[in-house]
Amino acid sequence: MDDFQLLNAGGEKIAVRKDLRVPMRDCVELAADAYHGTDDKPRPALVALSPYGKELQALALTTPPQRRPSPMWDGCIEAGDIARIVKEDYVHVIGDLRGSGHSGGEHIGNYNAGGVSLGQDAYDFIEWVAAQPWCDGNVGMVGISYFGSMQVLAAAERPPSLKAIFVSGGHYDFYETTYHGGVMWFMPRAAREGRGGDSGWAFTDNVKSRMIEEYPPAELKKLVEKRLQDPDVAAWPNLVHVLNYPKNHEAWFDIVMNELDGDWYEERNPITLAPKIDIPVWLQLDQGRGWTLDGTVELFNELKGPKKLDIGPYPPMQSRPFIEEHDKMFRWYDYWIKGIENGVMDEPAVSVFVEGSREVVTADQWPPKDIEYTSLYLRPRRSLSTEPEPMGADYAAPDGFYQAPLTVTDKVEILSWSTPPFEEATEMIGSGAAHIFAEIDQPDTNFILRLWDYAPNGKRQLITSGYLKASHRELDERTTEGNPYHPHTRTVPVEPGTVEEYVLRLYPFANTFMPGHKLTVELSNAEPLADEHNALLPPDAFHLPVGRPVTHKIYRDAAHHSRLVLPFTTGKAGKK
């Protein structure tokens, strides 16, 4: 029997059913809390599922929301505004996934890909909630990031009682969640271990490594030794520790050991599962974390049922506890779950906030306007031009930089090229590409590229970014002009001293460069330790640096047209 309590939140009483036990089909029980109004009537429910712990989510009732760079910001308090959900007459049900919190069962590997499908558990959880006397049989879901990914996994299982989902800030392509352009991203470590300002998973003794479960000890030892031969990994103390003591970091160990895309990540990739989803889906994300926006757009294009794509303004990190986007969410659920005719489906499917002009453009597809891909060429004197360089390399000598590993320096070397100030407002919406002709003196390096909008007063805002590990430079058949794709299924070491073309995918963005502003592109092989953008991200939201010294020569002469390929808009769309 559950523990029924009455809480006082902001002067309003809330009923909470603590420590509910929710049976799964394999007899494992998940733990949950349910919050609702005090009068005795059934209501529709909004379900939130994660491994971060339901007790942590309860802080939404007592902790004022924090924004980055507040040190009180905790990325794992993501289940939504409990008091607001109850006030809108829904039941907020927060559950612990198997192997976490107060739930039973084992959690094996990343997203439990080595054990019971999390989508299967979500199906059972949702149908149990729908059958309770305090629920009217109609269920939606709520929550950002991991909670958002769980919504897609749940919807792909098609539980009958799940009527619609509203996903804010989800992560979808699991490989791109962890390796951006093949470059390892550290934020998943923070989410799992609780480093860098996150509480992390609410681990139990039943979280296990899929690698340890699947490989004999002797074979796994050889695989670990091979991974430690990567100089980037060997130069980073935390990774050396993880690989030598994997049982302390089970899920992170699995990610570090699988640096290539393939079955490991595709087995339960939400984008692969998306065609199975036929219920209404609203996808929302703010600009500034390009790889997540890329996956959001890709997921939107794969969905078959009623759908919305809502791209909001910079900055990238929402409050914790998560409280944003609830107004939109309740309009969506009031229509699809409560049957209230509020006109939400009479509005265009796609809404995009355009930085710079600060306009909202709407349409029924992404991009919301017609675009024409136009090249901006890297030129001497650190300039960008619509005209390519006419001179050969003897006269247009390459730019270059030497980057020492961060084991011996704190300085990150950055090359930059800029346009002249724009004379008229210039709008770009979509994804893009950077074609960089480079010579390096090592078998590998990182290419990290960031686009900035510089105002006349010197203030700047990040517009988009691109990442590529040099050994991952192969392109696949999906690649078109301005829209490159890399398979990331094998590494091809670079022959030192050869000039290669590296094509970086620039993640989707929407920006108008206003008169007097200029576009600046920065290129490096590591990220600055601190700048205006990084201060808005959690401390661990950076990428694995290169562990060896590398000299880079960037060619941009008549034979090597290093350039940006950017989505300049040409057509009109609706505006709000």
From TrEMBL:
Domain Xaa-Pro dipeptidyl-peptidase C-terminal: residue ranges: 330-565
UniProt cross-references to InterPro entries, sorted A to Z: AB_hydrolase_fold, CocE/Ser_esterase, Galactose-bd-like_sf, Xaa-Pro-like_dom, Xaa-Pro_dipept_C, Xaa-Pro_dipeptidyl-ppase/CocE
Keyword check for Hydrolase: yes
GO terms assigned for molecular function: hydrolase activity
UniProt-listed SUPFAM superfamilies: alpha/beta-Hydrolases (SSF53474), Galactose-binding domain-like (SSF49785)
Top-level taxon: Bacteria
Stored Pfam families: Peptidase_S15, PepX_C
Keywords, alphabetical: Hydrolase
Stored Gene3D superfamilies: alpha-amino acid ester hydrolase ( Helical cap domain), alpha/beta hydrolase, Galactose-binding domain-like
UniProt KW Hydrolase keyword: yes
Protein name in the entry: CocE/NonD family hydrolase
